[in-house]
Design brief:
It contains 4 helices and 4 strands; from the N terminus they run H-H-E-E-H-E-H-E. By secondary structure, the protein is of the alpha+beta class. It has a single domain, classed as Nuclear Transport Factor 2, Chain: A (Roll). The longest helix has 25 residues.
Length: 109
């Protein structure tokens, strides 16, 4: 029973990190997003692969300035129980559709 409760708590904690990450991106909050990663983390994010801090620089200095706003829609969060049992500290790729509006059209919505 204890391991089941621990697994549920771990899943909820991971889910909340996903929510905070999306909120940080959508609010253009660099520190909120940075706090979602372990200091030694790496990110494989589409065309980008690198360390936590390299990713933060890439997304906030190169990617997000193109947009006037961003909005994520999160659904069907599935965290593989096997990863929790194995003690791995990684999260598998998770889809989260996002809507962005180019900064060149800031008053269109």
């Amino acid at each position: 029973m204890e391991s089941a409760v621990e697994a549920l708590l771990a899943k909820q904690a991971i889910t909340e990190v996903v929510y905070r990450y999306c909120r940080g991106i959508d609010r253009f909050d660099r520190e909120m997003v940075r706090d979602c990663y372990w200091p030694e983390a790496t990110d494989e994010h589409g065309s980008f692969t690198g360390t936590r801090d390299e990713y933060i620089s890439w997304v906030f200095d190169r990617l997000l300035p193109r947009y006037s706003w961003s909005q994520h829609f999160i659904g069907n969060v599935l965290i593989d129980q096997l990863d929790l049992v194995a003690g791995r500290q990684n999260v598998s790729p998770m889809g989260s559709p996002a809507t962005t509006v180019p900064a060149v059209f800031p008053n269109t919505i």
